Each structure stands twice: as C-alpha cells, then as structure tokens.
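Entry: Class I SAM-dependent methyltransferase
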Amino acid sequence: MGTVTRGTTNPNRLRRMDRWIAAVHGAELRRATDPVAVDLGYGAAPWTAVELLRRLRTAAPRTRVVGVEIEPARVAAALPYEREGLVFRHGGFEIPVPGRPALIRAANVLRQYDEDEAAAVWERLCARLAPASDRSRGGLLVEGTCDEIGRRHVWVALGPEGPRTVTFAARLGSLDRPSDLAERLPKALIHRNVPGEPVHAFLRDFDRAWAAAAPYASYGARQRWIRAVRDLGTDWPVRDGAARWRQGEVTVAWEALAPRG
C-alpha cells in the first residue's frame, strides 16, 4: 500500500534522525519485549536500514530492524545485506511485520503525497505502533524530510495517540539562518509556512533569536545556536536541553506548530 518513491538514498543521510531516535526512544526500545524497528521506504539501496540497526543497537542491543520497500526490485537488491537482526520485506503503509513495531521511521517518503493523504498515512501508521501501557508510552513514528546528504532535516515524532513533537536539525555551518530549514519541513507543515500559521511565526522568531545571538558567533556556530534556542524557549515550548542543542537540534511541542483549521 503506497506509491513508489524516487528511491534517492545516500550512506549516512539519516544520521541526525537516527541519533535523535537513539537518545529519545532508546529507553522504550530497551524495555520492549520485542523491540522491532521498521525502516519504511529505505529506497534504492539499503544503507539507511543497515545504519539504523547499528545506531539503535548502541542504545538498545536487542533491537531488530525490518526494511520495508514497495518496489520488489529494491527488496531483491537488499537481500544480500540481511544479517542477524536485519531483514527486508516487500510492502508499504500496511507495515508487513507481525505484531506492533516499537518504531517506524519514514524519511523522505511522504513528500509526493497531498497534505490530506499524508494525514491519512500518519493515522494508519500510528495504528500499527506498539500501544501505550502502564510502563510505556508506546511505539514511535518518526516522519520527516532531509536534503540529499543529511545536512538539514525536520521531522515529526508521533505516538499511538498522534503527533508529539517537531524537531529541526542541521549541520550548523550550512545555515545562514534557521528558516533555511523551511525547505525541509514535512508534508504536514511545508505548505503552512505562510503568515498566520504557527510554523511561520516560529521560524520568524527563530531567525530573530539567531540574529540577536550574532555576538556568540565568535565562539562558533554551535554556541550561537545554543544561545538562540535558549532565547527562543522563553516564548516557545522547547522540549529538549543543551545536550541536544549542541547537536544542532531543537525539538518543539507539536501543539505549538500544528496547522490552524
């Protein structure tokens, strides 16, 4: 179920997203009885699935990864890369794995869909996640978009209940201003970057905080970013702390950026 994507992929392209998932969701993966992660739409080559297994196992050693692709030829090409903890399957948004996965990562998959179609995909994928319980918030869907070599990335994290957060991540040396990340907004937000919408106001305020933090540039782009995010947090519900900001990230509550209407 779904549409074949261009299949563009590169080694190390999703490192920022993977690093964030391991840090934020690693504890849930460690607690899971069967920690299965799905790399949905891995593309013409299996590099992202191979890398996801390696990175998640640094946080949760029992994690297994299933690469899922809707194009049969891509699945056939990936089979030689199977190993302990990593398999590849033909399929799409139905997520052809037994049980409920603890993680679904869908990077650069929904760009070609209409906004309403993307919302329906979110709902379908969230329904496939491991449910919440007394000891767990449930599985995590991470859906977003990055550039071809992973310098700029924006993603939404969703649980079984729906969207939770939006994360902006970048190689800071590649940015003139934070709003450069607007071109990588996921489908749910990219058409909402217009006056009157929260995401537009957020990026406007981020640019202002970045400009005000210009004196910190003498200490490097990282220190300027940290200062800008700290100031941004006085008006926006920033969810993370300096340890994540140092990675060139900032995570904001979904409710603050959700489209109006």
